[in-house]
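S.,

As promised, the magnesium ion run. Input:
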Amino acid sequence: MRSPKDFFKPLCVGAPDPVREIPFPPSRMIHFFDASNEKMVAKLPDTAAQADIVLGNLEDAVPVDRKVPAREGLVKVGKELDLGSTQLWTRVNALDSPWVLDDLTTLVTEIGDKLDVIMVPKVEGPWDIHYVDRLLAQLEAKAGVKKPILVHALLETAQGVANVEEIAAASPRMQGMSFGPADLAASRRMKTTRVGGGHPGYVSMSDPEIADGQIVEGQTRITAQQDPWHYSIARMVDACTMNGLLPFYGPFGDIKDVVACEAQFRAAFLLGCVGAWSLHPVQIGIAKKVFSPPVDEVLFAKKVIEAIPDGAGVHMIDGKMQDDATWKQCQVMVTLAEMLAEKDPELKEAYGF
Ligand SMILES: CC(=O)SCCNC(=O)CCNC(=O)[C@H](O)C(C)(C)COP(=O)(O)OP(=O)(O)OC[C@H]1O[C@@H](n2cnc3c(N)ncnc32)[C@H](O)[C@@H]1OP(=O)(O)O
Ligand SMILES: CC(=O)C(=O)O
Ligand SMILES: [Mg+2]
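Predicted complex:
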Protein backbone atom coordinates (compact mmCIF):
# COMPACT_ATOMS: atom_id res chain seq x y z
CA MET A 1 0.00 0.00 0.00
CA ARG A 2 1.24 3.53 -0.79
CA SER A 3 2.29 5.76 2.04
CA PRO A 4 -0.65 7.90 3.19
CA LYS A 5 1.63 10.91 2.57
CA ASP A 6 1.80 10.03 -1.14
CA PHE A 7 -1.87 9.21 -1.60
CA PHE A 8 -2.72 12.56 -3.20
CA LYS A 9 0.41 12.84 -5.36
CA PRO A 10 -0.11 12.49 -9.14
CA LEU A 11 1.04 9.09 -10.42
CA CYS A 12 2.85 10.61 -13.42
CA VAL A 13 4.87 13.76 -13.95
CA GLY A 14 2.56 16.25 -15.65
CA ALA A 15 -0.71 14.56 -14.61
CA PRO A 16 -3.25 16.76 -12.77
CA ASP A 17 -3.43 16.67 -8.96
CA PRO A 18 -6.02 14.16 -7.70
CA VAL A 19 -9.20 15.65 -6.25
CA ARG A 20 -9.56 15.68 -2.46
CA GLU A 21 -13.34 15.64 -2.48
CA ILE A 22 -15.57 13.77 -4.91
CA PRO A 23 -17.97 16.19 -6.65
CA PHE A 24 -21.67 15.43 -6.12
CA PRO A 25 -23.75 17.06 -8.87
CA PRO A 26 -27.22 15.64 -9.72
CA SER A 27 -26.57 11.93 -10.32
CA ARG A 28 -29.99 10.29 -10.21
CA MET A 29 -29.46 8.17 -13.30
CA ILE A 30 -26.58 6.98 -15.46
CA HIS A 31 -28.22 6.66 -18.85
CA PHE A 32 -26.60 4.05 -21.10
CA PHE A 33 -26.26 4.56 -24.85
CA ASP A 34 -24.34 2.79 -27.58
CA ALA A 35 -22.41 5.35 -29.60
CA SER A 36 -22.31 2.98 -32.59
CA ASN A 37 -26.12 3.18 -32.75
CA GLU A 38 -26.90 6.15 -34.99
CA LYS A 39 -30.47 6.45 -33.71
CA MET A 40 -29.34 6.69 -30.09
CA VAL A 41 -26.65 9.24 -30.95
CA ALA A 42 -29.10 11.36 -32.96
CA LYS A 43 -31.34 11.54 -29.91
CA LEU A 44 -28.50 12.19 -27.47
CA PRO A 45 -28.98 15.98 -27.11
CA ASP A 46 -32.63 15.35 -26.13
CA THR A 47 -31.69 12.42 -23.89
CA ALA A 48 -28.97 14.46 -22.22
CA ALA A 49 -31.46 17.25 -21.50
CA GLN A 50 -33.52 14.72 -19.48
CA ALA A 51 -30.67 12.82 -17.80
CA ASP A 52 -28.11 13.74 -15.15
CA ILE A 53 -25.40 11.48 -16.62
CA VAL A 54 -25.08 9.87 -20.05
CA LEU A 55 -22.69 6.98 -20.50
CA GLY A 56 -21.25 5.69 -23.76
CA ASN A 57 -21.12 1.95 -23.20
CA LEU A 58 -18.29 -0.03 -24.78
CA GLU A 59 -18.59 -3.27 -22.80
CA ASP A 60 -21.33 -5.92 -22.57
CA ALA A 61 -24.30 -5.33 -24.91
CA VAL A 62 -21.91 -3.99 -27.57
CA PRO A 63 -21.09 -6.88 -29.89
CA VAL A 64 -17.48 -7.64 -30.82
CA ASP A 65 -17.83 -6.29 -34.35
CA ARG A 66 -19.09 -2.95 -32.98
CA LYS A 67 -16.45 -2.40 -30.29
CA VAL A 68 -14.40 -0.06 -32.49
CA PRO A 69 -17.40 1.85 -33.95
CA ALA A 70 -18.76 2.32 -30.39
CA ARG A 71 -15.42 3.74 -29.24
CA GLU A 72 -15.09 5.98 -32.32
CA GLY A 73 -18.71 7.08 -31.99
CA LEU A 74 -18.06 8.13 -28.41
CA VAL A 75 -15.03 10.16 -29.46
CA LYS A 76 -17.27 11.93 -31.99
CA VAL A 77 -19.91 12.58 -29.32
CA GLY A 78 -17.26 14.03 -26.99
CA LYS A 79 -15.86 16.27 -29.70
CA GLU A 80 -19.04 17.42 -31.40
CA LEU A 81 -21.95 17.48 -28.97
CA ASP A 82 -22.62 20.06 -26.30
CA LEU A 83 -24.27 18.16 -23.44
CA GLY A 84 -24.65 21.20 -21.18
CA SER A 85 -24.29 20.37 -17.51
CA THR A 86 -25.04 16.67 -18.09
CA GLN A 87 -22.00 14.55 -17.29
CA LEU A 88 -20.38 12.34 -19.93
CA TRP A 89 -19.15 8.96 -18.72
CA THR A 90 -18.02 5.79 -20.40
CA ARG A 91 -17.95 2.10 -19.44
CA VAL A 92 -14.77 0.65 -20.96
CA ASN A 93 -14.27 -3.02 -21.69
CA ALA A 94 -13.11 -5.35 -18.93
CA LEU A 95 -9.46 -5.26 -17.89
CA ASP A 96 -8.89 -8.81 -19.16
CA SER A 97 -10.26 -7.98 -22.61
CA PRO A 98 -8.21 -7.16 -25.72
CA TRP A 99 -10.07 -3.84 -26.19
CA VAL A 100 -9.57 -1.98 -22.95
CA LEU A 101 -6.08 -0.65 -23.62
CA ASP A 102 -7.26 1.00 -26.84
CA ASP A 103 -10.44 2.19 -25.12
CA LEU A 104 -8.47 4.04 -22.45
CA THR A 105 -5.71 5.28 -24.75
CA THR A 106 -8.07 6.60 -27.40
CA LEU A 107 -10.63 8.13 -25.07
CA VAL A 108 -8.19 9.94 -22.79
CA THR A 109 -6.02 11.28 -25.58
CA GLU A 110 -8.97 12.28 -27.80
CA ILE A 111 -11.66 13.45 -25.36
CA GLY A 112 -9.97 13.30 -21.94
CA ASP A 113 -11.07 16.87 -21.23
CA LYS A 114 -14.74 15.96 -21.88
CA LEU A 115 -14.99 12.72 -19.91
CA ASP A 116 -15.97 13.07 -16.28
CA VAL A 117 -15.84 9.45 -15.17
CA ILE A 118 -14.64 6.11 -16.52
CA MET A 119 -16.57 3.10 -15.30
CA VAL A 120 -14.43 -0.02 -15.00
CA PRO A 121 -16.42 -3.28 -15.11
CA LYS A 122 -15.74 -6.46 -13.15
CA VAL A 123 -13.36 -4.86 -10.65
CA GLU A 124 -12.14 -7.62 -8.34
CA GLY A 125 -9.71 -5.89 -6.02
CA PRO A 126 -7.59 -2.76 -5.43
CA TRP A 127 -5.00 -4.04 -7.93
CA ASP A 128 -7.45 -3.37 -10.78
CA ILE A 129 -7.89 0.24 -9.66
CA HIS A 130 -4.12 0.70 -9.21
CA TYR A 131 -3.55 -0.43 -12.79
CA VAL A 132 -6.13 1.99 -14.20
CA ASP A 133 -4.99 4.78 -11.88
CA ARG A 134 -1.37 4.77 -13.11
CA LEU A 135 -2.34 4.33 -16.75
CA LEU A 136 -4.80 7.22 -16.60
CA ALA A 137 -2.16 9.46 -15.03
CA GLN A 138 0.27 8.63 -17.85
CA LEU A 139 -2.36 9.28 -20.50
CA GLU A 140 -3.56 12.50 -18.86
CA ALA A 141 0.02 13.76 -18.77
CA LYS A 142 0.57 12.82 -22.41
CA ALA A 143 -2.69 14.48 -23.52
CA GLY A 144 -2.34 17.54 -21.27
CA VAL A 145 -5.63 16.83 -19.49
CA LYS A 146 -6.07 19.38 -16.72
CA LYS A 147 -8.85 17.84 -14.61
CA PRO A 148 -8.32 14.28 -13.32
CA ILE A 149 -10.69 11.73 -14.83
CA LEU A 150 -12.47 9.89 -12.05
CA VAL A 151 -12.97 6.13 -11.81
CA HIS A 152 -16.19 4.28 -11.04
CA ALA A 153 -15.96 0.57 -10.16
CA LEU A 154 -18.63 -1.89 -11.21
CA LEU A 155 -19.18 -4.39 -8.42
CA GLU A 156 -20.28 -7.56 -10.15
CA THR A 157 -18.21 -10.52 -9.01
CA ALA A 158 -18.06 -12.40 -5.73
CA GLN A 159 -14.42 -11.41 -5.33
CA GLY A 160 -15.26 -7.77 -5.96
CA VAL A 161 -17.92 -7.87 -3.23
CA ALA A 162 -15.45 -9.55 -0.86
CA ASN A 163 -12.90 -6.77 -1.53
CA VAL A 164 -15.33 -3.86 -1.71
CA GLU A 165 -13.74 -1.80 1.09
CA GLU A 166 -10.23 -2.08 -0.39
CA ILE A 167 -11.55 -1.16 -3.84
CA ALA A 168 -13.27 1.94 -2.48
CA ALA A 169 -10.06 3.09 -0.75
CA ALA A 170 -7.68 2.22 -3.61
CA SER A 171 -7.24 5.68 -5.16
CA PRO A 172 -8.31 9.31 -4.77
CA ARG A 173 -9.73 8.89 -8.29
CA MET A 174 -12.47 6.59 -6.96
CA GLN A 175 -15.71 8.44 -7.64
CA GLY A 176 -18.18 5.71 -6.81
CA MET A 177 -19.49 2.25 -7.50
CA SER A 178 -22.41 0.62 -9.24
CA PHE A 179 -23.99 -2.65 -8.37
CA GLY A 180 -24.12 -5.21 -11.22
CA PRO A 181 -26.71 -7.88 -10.42
CA ALA A 182 -26.44 -9.82 -13.70
CA ASP A 183 -22.76 -10.68 -13.70
CA LEU A 184 -22.81 -10.98 -9.92
CA ALA A 185 -25.57 -13.59 -10.10
CA ALA A 186 -23.54 -15.59 -12.63
CA SER A 187 -20.34 -15.24 -10.62
CA ARG A 188 -22.08 -16.55 -7.49
CA ARG A 189 -23.97 -19.30 -9.31
CA MET A 190 -27.25 -17.77 -8.22
CA LYS A 191 -30.08 -19.49 -10.08
CA THR A 192 -31.69 -16.53 -11.79
CA THR A 193 -31.79 -15.30 -15.38
CA ARG A 194 -32.94 -11.78 -14.43
CA VAL A 195 -31.11 -8.45 -14.37
CA GLY A 196 -31.90 -7.16 -10.88
CA GLY A 197 -35.17 -7.28 -8.97
CA GLY A 198 -36.58 -10.00 -6.76
CA HIS A 199 -37.49 -13.58 -7.52
CA PRO A 200 -40.71 -15.44 -6.66
CA GLY A 201 -38.61 -18.34 -5.35
CA TYR A 202 -36.69 -16.20 -2.86
CA VAL A 203 -39.21 -15.85 -0.06
CA SER A 204 -39.76 -16.10 3.64
CA MET A 205 -42.77 -18.12 4.82
CA SER A 206 -45.14 -17.99 7.76
CA ASP A 207 -45.13 -20.85 10.27
CA PRO A 208 -47.50 -23.76 9.60
CA GLU A 209 -50.80 -24.19 11.37
CA ILE A 210 -50.58 -27.13 13.77
CA ALA A 211 -53.48 -29.33 14.86
CA ASP A 212 -53.11 -32.24 17.28
CA GLY A 213 -49.34 -31.79 17.10
CA GLN A 214 -49.35 -32.29 13.30
CA ILE A 215 -48.81 -29.83 10.42
CA VAL A 216 -52.23 -29.23 8.85
CA GLU A 217 -52.18 -30.56 5.31
CA GLY A 218 -53.20 -28.42 2.32
CA GLN A 219 -53.04 -25.14 4.21
CA THR A 220 -52.03 -21.91 2.49
CA ARG A 221 -48.92 -20.37 4.02
CA ILE A 222 -48.21 -16.67 3.66
CA THR A 223 -45.02 -15.93 1.76
CA ALA A 224 -43.26 -12.67 1.02
CA GLN A 225 -40.54 -12.11 -1.56
CA GLN A 226 -37.24 -11.06 -0.05
CA ASP A 227 -34.54 -8.89 -1.56
CA PRO A 228 -31.63 -11.09 -2.70
CA TRP A 229 -29.38 -8.02 -3.18
CA HIS A 230 -29.80 -6.37 0.19
CA TYR A 231 -26.56 -7.57 1.79
CA SER A 232 -24.29 -6.65 -1.10
CA ILE A 233 -25.86 -3.26 -1.80
CA ALA A 234 -25.65 -2.35 1.87
CA ARG A 235 -21.96 -3.35 1.93
CA MET A 236 -21.31 -1.27 -1.17
CA VAL A 237 -23.06 1.74 0.39
CA ASP A 238 -20.95 1.47 3.55
CA ALA A 239 -17.70 1.05 1.61
CA CYS A 240 -18.51 4.06 -0.57
CA THR A 241 -19.71 6.28 2.22
CA MET A 242 -16.74 5.65 4.48
CA ASN A 243 -14.45 6.72 1.61
CA GLY A 244 -16.49 9.69 0.38
CA LEU A 245 -17.68 7.95 -2.81
CA LEU A 246 -21.13 7.80 -4.41
CA PRO A 247 -22.96 4.43 -4.53
CA PHE A 248 -25.38 3.61 -7.37
CA TYR A 249 -27.73 0.74 -8.02
CA GLY A 250 -27.11 -0.68 -11.55
CA PRO A 251 -29.52 -1.92 -14.22
CA PHE A 252 -33.05 -3.27 -14.13
CA GLY A 253 -33.46 -5.48 -17.17
CA ASP A 254 -37.24 -5.98 -17.37
CA ILE A 255 -37.81 -2.74 -19.27
CA LYS A 256 -41.59 -3.28 -19.54
CA ASP A 257 -42.04 -3.84 -15.80
CA VAL A 258 -41.85 -0.22 -14.76
CA VAL A 259 -43.47 -0.94 -11.39
CA ALA A 260 -40.82 -3.47 -10.32
CA CYS A 261 -38.11 -1.17 -11.68
CA GLU A 262 -39.40 1.61 -9.46
CA ALA A 263 -39.47 -0.74 -6.45
CA GLN A 264 -35.86 -1.86 -7.07
CA PHE A 265 -34.69 1.74 -7.49
CA ARG A 266 -36.57 2.82 -4.35
CA ALA A 267 -35.01 0.06 -2.24
CA ALA A 268 -31.59 1.29 -3.40
CA PHE A 269 -32.51 4.93 -2.69
CA LEU A 270 -33.64 4.07 0.84
CA LEU A 271 -30.41 2.15 1.50
CA GLY A 272 -28.28 5.16 0.49
CA CYS A 273 -27.67 4.93 -3.26
CA VAL A 274 -27.67 8.28 -5.07
CA GLY A 275 -28.91 6.93 -8.40
CA ALA A 276 -29.37 3.94 -10.70
CA TRP A 277 -28.79 3.08 -14.33
CA SER A 278 -31.34 3.71 -17.05
CA LEU A 279 -31.08 1.36 -20.01
CA HIS A 280 -34.11 2.70 -21.85
CA PRO A 281 -35.61 6.23 -22.01
CA VAL A 282 -38.59 5.07 -19.92
CA GLN A 283 -36.26 4.41 -16.97
CA ILE A 284 -34.93 7.99 -16.90
CA GLY A 285 -38.24 9.27 -15.53
CA ILE A 286 -38.45 6.45 -12.99
CA ALA A 287 -34.98 7.23 -11.65
CA LYS A 288 -35.71 10.95 -11.55
CA LYS A 289 -38.85 10.34 -9.52
CA VAL A 290 -37.30 7.85 -7.11
CA PHE A 291 -33.94 9.52 -6.48
CA SER A 292 -35.39 12.98 -5.89
CA PRO A 293 -36.44 12.93 -2.22
CA PRO A 294 -40.24 12.85 -1.74
CA VAL A 295 -41.78 16.29 -1.27
CA ASP A 296 -43.54 15.41 2.03
CA GLU A 297 -40.26 14.12 3.51
CA VAL A 298 -38.39 17.26 2.46
CA LEU A 299 -41.09 19.55 3.89
CA PHE A 300 -41.02 17.61 7.16
CA ALA A 301 -37.21 17.71 7.26
CA LYS A 302 -37.27 21.48 6.69
CA LYS A 303 -39.77 21.82 9.52
CA VAL A 304 -37.50 19.88 11.89
CA ILE A 305 -34.44 21.97 10.97
CA GLU A 306 -36.38 25.21 11.36
CA ALA A 307 -37.71 24.12 14.76
CA ILE A 308 -34.31 22.90 16.02
CA PRO A 309 -31.67 24.95 14.18
CA ASP A 310 -28.74 23.46 16.12
CA GLY A 311 -30.11 19.91 16.41
CA ALA A 312 -29.61 19.95 20.20
CA GLY A 313 -31.81 18.29 22.81
CA VAL A 314 -34.94 16.24 22.38
CA HIS A 315 -38.20 17.48 20.87
CA MET A 316 -41.61 16.28 19.69
CA ILE A 317 -42.58 17.37 16.18
CA ASP A 318 -45.83 16.04 14.68
CA GLY A 319 -45.83 13.30 17.33
CA LYS A 320 -42.33 12.09 16.46
CA MET A 321 -39.27 12.26 18.68
CA GLN A 322 -36.48 14.39 17.24
CA ASP A 323 -32.88 14.62 18.41
CA ASP A 324 -29.40 15.04 16.98
CA ALA A 325 -29.64 11.83 14.91
CA THR A 326 -32.99 12.60 13.29
CA TRP A 327 -31.78 16.18 12.70
CA LYS A 328 -28.82 14.75 10.74
CA GLN A 329 -31.20 12.59 8.68
CA CYS A 330 -33.18 15.74 7.92
CA GLN A 331 -29.98 17.49 6.84
CA VAL A 332 -29.26 14.64 4.37
CA MET A 333 -32.75 15.01 2.89
CA VAL A 334 -32.69 18.83 2.67
CA THR A 335 -29.12 19.05 1.34
CA LEU A 336 -29.98 16.62 -1.47
CA ALA A 337 -33.23 18.44 -2.20
CA GLU A 338 -31.43 21.81 -2.39
CA MET A 339 -28.83 20.42 -4.79
CA LEU A 340 -31.48 18.92 -7.09
CA ALA A 341 -33.68 22.03 -6.89
CA GLU A 342 -30.86 24.07 -8.40
CA LYS A 343 -31.14 21.98 -11.56
CA ASP A 344 -34.89 21.40 -11.61
CA PRO A 345 -37.32 24.36 -11.28
CA GLU A 346 -40.31 22.05 -10.71
CA LEU A 347 -38.61 20.41 -7.75
CA LYS A 348 -37.55 23.82 -6.45
CA GLU A 349 -41.16 24.94 -6.36
CA ALA A 350 -42.43 21.68 -4.86
CA TYR A 351 -39.79 21.76 -2.11
CA GLY A 352 -40.52 25.44 -1.44
CA PHE A 353 -36.97 26.76 -1.88
C1 LIG B 1 -26.13 -6.07 -17.52
C2 LIG B 1 -25.61 -4.82 -18.22
O1 LIG B 1 -24.46 -4.72 -18.52
S1 LIG B 1 -26.74 -3.54 -18.51
C3 LIG B 1 -25.86 -2.42 -19.54
C4 LIG B 1 -25.72 -2.85 -20.96
N1 LIG B 1 -26.97 -2.77 -21.70
C5 LIG B 1 -27.33 -1.67 -22.36
O2 LIG B 1 -26.59 -0.69 -22.41
C6 LIG B 1 -28.66 -1.68 -23.06
C7 LIG B 1 -29.10 -0.29 -23.49
N2 LIG B 1 -30.45 -0.30 -24.00
C8 LIG B 1 -30.74 -0.82 -25.21
O3 LIG B 1 -29.87 -1.23 -25.96
C9 LIG B 1 -32.20 -0.83 -25.62
O4 LIG B 1 -32.95 0.01 -24.80
C10 LIG B 1 -32.87 -2.24 -25.58
C11 LIG B 1 -32.13 -3.20 -26.52
C12 LIG B 1 -32.84 -2.79 -24.18
C13 LIG B 1 -34.32 -2.09 -26.02
O5 LIG B 1 -34.29 -1.42 -27.26
P1 LIG B 1 -35.58 -1.37 -28.21
O6 LIG B 1 -36.13 -2.74 -28.37
O7 LIG B 1 -35.20 -0.60 -29.44
O8 LIG B 1 -36.60 -0.55 -27.33
P2 LIG B 1 -37.84 0.28 -27.84
O9 LIG B 1 -38.36 -0.25 -29.12
O10 LIG B 1 -38.80 0.40 -26.71
O11 LIG B 1 -37.18 1.73 -28.09
C14 LIG B 1 -37.99 2.86 -28.24
C15 LIG B 1 -37.12 3.99 -28.72
O12 LIG B 1 -36.15 4.32 -27.71
C16 LIG B 1 -34.85 4.27 -28.23
N3 LIG B 1 -33.95 3.77 -27.21
C17 LIG B 1 -33.95 2.54 -26.63
N4 LIG B 1 -32.97 2.47 -25.71
C18 LIG B 1 -32.35 3.67 -25.71
C19 LIG B 1 -31.27 4.19 -24.98
N5 LIG B 1 -30.62 3.46 -24.06
N6 LIG B 1 -30.91 5.47 -25.19
C20 LIG B 1 -31.55 6.23 -26.12
N7 LIG B 1 -32.58 5.78 -26.86
C21 LIG B 1 -32.97 4.51 -26.66
C22 LIG B 1 -34.94 3.31 -29.42
O13 LIG B 1 -33.89 3.60 -30.34
C23 LIG B 1 -36.31 3.64 -29.98
O14 LIG B 1 -36.22 4.81 -30.76
P3 LIG B 1 -37.29 5.12 -31.94
O15 LIG B 1 -38.62 5.29 -31.27
O16 LIG B 1 -36.78 6.39 -32.55
O17 LIG B 1 -37.24 3.95 -32.85
C1 LIG C 1 -24.42 -4.02 -14.42
C2 LIG C 1 -23.81 -5.17 -15.01
O1 LIG C 1 -22.94 -5.08 -15.84
C3 LIG C 1 -24.30 -6.45 -14.58
O2 LIG C 1 -25.30 -6.50 -13.87
O3 LIG C 1 -23.66 -7.43 -14.95
MG1 LIG D 1 -21.92 -6.88 -16.14
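The chain has 14 helices and 14 strands. The mean pLDDT is 97.

- D.
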